[in-house]
Write a structure and sequence with these properties.
The complex is a heterodimer of chains A (168) and B (404). Chain A is mainly beta and 168 residues long. Chain A is 5% helix and 39% strand. Chain A has one domain (2-154): OB fold (Dihydrolipoamide Acetyltransferase, E2P) (Beta Barrel). Chain A contains 1 helix and 10 strands, in the order E-E-H-E-E-E-E-E-E-E-E. The relative contact order of chain A is 0.18. With 404 residues, chain B is of the alpha/beta class. Strand 6 of chain A pairs antiparallel with strand 5 of chain B.
């Protein structure tokens, strides 16, 4: 059973957790963002799951993606629920839309991932820099020899469409 | 299949007080709430033979509540779930009675939601390991309901120009309603400025955009229209129900857009189709207010206004007592107390009876002043049709239409 302590949380992956047992390990060992791709229709999906939501195939393989995308939505947590996040506040949680498979298989669908928006030093990006539309890339926060959290950081690429920041 | 519209009724409602320090078990509270609902209906221990409840691993089961009241059950079922469970269980209770498994079902939710198992992930939940699907969000500091829903709210603001001031009116309206409710945990009226000045919890949510956490139990009783005729209260008829309707990809609903769309988009045709009515025919709504935004999102999704115009709708005065279609007249989760939705259903039952328990001296006889100034009346005049819009998460919801 993989188990890692992070910000006071005990992240646990039992051996029979066939959804997650490889995901964070692959992130650590390859430092690439790997997603499950259906062997039937080829479409990728996240989070890791057994069946293809589009063609019902149970056959899949890991496939690397670029780890680049833009902020589709976000929030800024000021009141941390988890004690280990208190020293991080205010911190941004971002919903990143990856460049691959945008608008597939229907116009409203995409590969989207939840993560924190962090600086290269893995500190929370100041909230005035967080906005819908800004471009980001994946970075890996190593927590142990076999566990890394995929996080995202801003890039200097031109934004995706309209840049919008919560006015409050 | 023949329609079940108007063939089943809610005949009894009851609850405990709303507190933050119940100092007793969920069993004790459930027993009191179920007993109150049975007394309200005029039912003795032989009058109920079915029981259902919902919980999140934080409450008592039906088979431990029934014995305290001398009830022998022919059917019971306790399900896992929070918001949106009540409406779904009412539909299942109708089915259990329809096939002859039992004749009358008590449904309850009992929770020490402040003093013990707090929904937000603090309290007894904080020590639990993070595993399974939680690994997609919790390690990133996204655990509480507010943190889980905020990207949906933010995207709605981005797409439609919805403002914080607009949705703050939900709190304003519900606090006005709570000021007419002797049971409400918070009875003070607030203004838009109060909401905007309250501290940030998780942008775009201020403290006053968020509901309460409280300890309480709530119960209601479902039976057939035939049985309902002989009972103490005027029956309230069930016209339509939609239970735990989902968007695609409920495991990770962010994958399927638009994320500003919520489950009501898929539930509305089911429930309005059964009831044979339109949104305009509804006099009172009960749109789940875990947050100001959840009320707004559901009202627009069910067609009380156009998609994207929810901000204008909730800030127009329509949803306040005295407005065209008041919402959550008890003050509900933002002000009355937190019950995972069942209290909003029993409030609508009381509205349809014309017997809302406000400060009018003759409320129990249906005598109301319709004076909506503080500490007075909260009965809606001529409330004939109500609708509950239950929320579990952005991708899961339920709905219930009732009539007098």
């Amino acid at each position: 059973m993989a188990s890692v302590e992070y910000r006071g949380m005990n992240l646990v992956i039992p051996e029979n957790d066939s959804e997650w047992r490889e995901h964070f390990k692959l992130a650590r060992t390859s430092h690439r963002l790997m997603l499950r791709a259906c062997k039937g229709c080829g479409l990728m999906r996240y989070p890791p799951s057994h069946g293809c939501p589009w063609c019902m195939s149970l056959e899949w393989e890991w496939k690397p993606v670029s780890g680049r995308g833009h902020i589709y939505s976000y929030e800024v947590v000021h009141h941390a629920i988890q004690p280990g996040f208190k020293e991080w506040t205010p911190y941004a949680v971002v919903l990143v839309e990856l460049d691959e498979q945008r608008g597939q298989p229907t116009p409203d669908e995409a590969l989207r991932v939840i993560a924190n928006l962090v600086t290269p030093e893995f500190r929370p990006e100041p909230e005035q820099n967080v906005a819908i539309g800004k471009r980001v890339r994946v970075v890996f926060q190593d927590l142990s020899a076999d566990f890394a959290l995929p996080q995202f950081t801003l890039t200097d690429e031109p934004a995706e469409g309209r840049v919008w920041r919560f006015p409050g | 299949m023949a329609s079940l519209r108007d063939k089943y009724c809610i005949v009894g409602v009851g609850e405990t007080e709303y507190s933050r320090q119940s100092a007793r078990s969920t069993r004790a509270m459930a027993v009191e709430a179920v007993r109150n609902a049975m007394r309200d209906a005029g039912l003795g221990k032989d009058g109920v033979d079915g029981m259902m409840s919902y919980q999140s691993g934080d409450s008592v089961f039906s088979n431990f509540v029934a014995p305290d009241l001398g009830i022998r059950l022919n059917f019971y079922m306790d399900v896992f779930g929070g918001g949106s469970s009540t409406e779904a269980l009412i539909g299942l209770a109708m089915g259990a009675i329809e096939v002859g498994m039992c004749h009358t079902v008590a449904i309850f939710r009992s929770m020490n939601g402040y003093s013990d198992f707090r929904i937000g992930g603090t309290g007894a939940r904080a020590a639990q390991p993070v595993r399974g699907l939680d690994l997609a969000q919790v390690p990133f500091g996204m655990r509480s309901a507010g943190q889980n829903f905020a990207p949906t709210f933010m995207r709605h603001m981005y797409e439609y120009g919805t403002t914080s001031e607009q949705v703050a009116h939900v709190r304003v309206a519900h606090s006005k309603h709570a000021s007419q409710n002797p049971k409400a945990f918070l009875k003070d009226r607030v203004t838009v400025a109060d909401v905007m000045a309250s501290r940030w919890i998780c942008k775009p949510l201020h403290l006053l955009d968020c509901c309460l956490e409280t300890d309480n139990a709530t119960a209601l009783i479902v039976t057939s229209a035939e049985r309902a005729r002989d009972l103490r209260r005027k029956p309230v008829y069930i016209m339509g129900v939609a239970g735990r309707v989902n968007k695609p990809r409920t495991d990770f609903h962010w994958a399927h857009g638009p994320i500003s769309r919520v489950a009501g988009y898929h539930a509305k045709d089911i429930v309005f189709g059964q009831a044979g009515i339109k949104p305009d025919d509804v006099n009172v709504t009960g749109s789940y207010d875990a947050f100001t935004f959840t009320t707004m999102l559901q009202l627009e999704e069910y067609g009380f206004c156009k998609k994207g115009e929810g901000g204008q709708y909730v800030s127009s005065g329509i949803i306040e007592l005295g407005g065209k279609r008041p919402n959550n007249t008890s003050g509900s989760h933002l002000c009355e107390g937190y019950t995972h939705g069942i209290s909003m259903v029993i409030e609508n039952v009381r509205q349809l009876r014309g017997q809302v328990d406000d400060y009018c001296p003759g409320w129990e006889d249906g005598k109301h002043s319709y004076d909506y100034s503080p500490g007075k009346c909260r009965q809606v005049k001529d409330a004939r049709v109500t609708m509950n819009l239950g929320w579990a998460m952005p991708p899961t919801g339920s709905a219930l239409i009732m009539r007098s």
